[in-house]
Amino acid sequence: MITHDNLVLNMEALRKRWRWASDDVLLHVLPLYHFHGLGVALHGALNAKSKVIMHKKFNPERVWKTIEEEKITMFMGVPTLYFRMVEAWNKMDKKPDISSMRVFISGSVPLSEKLFYEFKKITGHRILERYGMTEAGMITSNPYEQDQRIPKSVGYALDGCEIKIVNSGGSDAKPNEVGDVYIRGNNVFKGYWRMPKKTKESFVDGWFATGDMGYMDKTGRLFLVGRSNDMIISGGYNVYPKEVEYVIEENDCVLEAAVLGVDDEDFGERVEAVVRLKKPGCIDEKSLLEFTRNKLAHYKCPKKIYIVDEIPKNTMGKIVIDDIKKLIKEGRIA
């Protein structure tokens, strides 16, 4: 149950943080049935009284062309879109003029450090990553100033929102200690429609339990490590999939990775990974496993890595772990 105040106050916080003005021109390529496309992009533009140019379907070449022709100043996407835009840029003989661009924004799925710096290298822009969810709209954002945006972080709480990290013991976590992300503020919804039990379970002393896990540094900057129900417990140790994925993606041959927990009689769960390469045959499983062993504690290292042509995703570019597990179980990934 999302109120008008939730929406309006959240958009005002974004307008202030992103310096969104009436003379901005937003290029909108996201689906309107998702909060990213409706509640952030479209509502944000309407609130700021700025112009919106909408594409029914995402096409990276058309995006670059439109930025140049329509003097676009703002663009919002998910990492999958930005990756395809990088590919398209590298294939263009004549690079587009994007001098009108003010800010590229990313959300819905964590942005890899590799893509962050690759996009910066070719465009001169550091993508601004933020964090939100349907129940609370936008929660955090990296600073508007480019030199203050860093990869792997979703930034600081927006005006009107508070964040705290709760450790496994139920106490407030120390700086850099991983725990559950709790939020409260004028952006948080009033509860789930006709689901009083779920609503009651989701709030603790006025704080909403997001289901995400992360940590904050001493300055209050938030870093996410994954969903609490995605955490892998192997041999009694906690393994956060995102940490392992970041390490695998450091390899120059790797395009993207998905890490999952698989039932194991000995360890309870074992860590496995599905990897998509930049070029077929660039690296083999044995070499990739060795690469992770040199960078991770032994219990975090994948016991098996599957090299695949595509990793299952939904329409917003989120990797669907259940689909991966199903394909492995059926022997369609081996």
- If you consult CATH, what is the topology of the largest domain? Rossmann fold
Q: What is the averaged pLDDT score?
A: 94
- What structural category arises from helix and sheet content? alpha/beta
Please give the CATH class of the largest domain.
Alpha Beta
Largest sheet: number of strands, sense, barrel closure: 7 strands, mixed
CATH superfamily of the largest domain: ANL, N-terminal domain
Distance between the termini: 43 Å
Strand content: 25-35%
The CATH architecture of the largest domain comes to 3-Layer(aba) Sandwich
Q: What share of the residues lie within helices?
A: 25-40%
Total domain modules: 3
What's the overall geometry?
globular
Number of helices: 9
Given as residue ranges, the uncertain stretches (5+ residues, pLDDT < 50) are none
Write up what this structure looks like.
There is one protein chain. This protein is α/β, with parallel strands linked by helices and 334 residues long. It has 3 domains: 4-157, Rossmann fold (3-Layer(aba) Sandwich); 161-227, Luciferase, Domain 3 (Luciferase, domain 3, Roll), CATH 2.30.38; 231-329, ANL, C-terminal domain (GMP Synthetase, Chain A, domain 3, 2-Layer Sandwich), CATH 3.30.300. It is built from 9 helices and 17 strands. It has helices at residues 4-18, 35-48, 60-70, 79-91, 113-123, 196-202, 241-248, 285-293, 321-329; strands spanning 25-28, 51-54, 74-77, 103-106, 128-133, 137-141, 156-157, 161-166, 179-185, 203-204, 207-216, 222-227, 232-234, 237-239, 254-264, 268-277, 304-308. A 7-stranded mixed β-sheet has the order 2-1-3-4-5-6-7, sandwiched between helices. The longest helix has 15 residues, at 4-18.
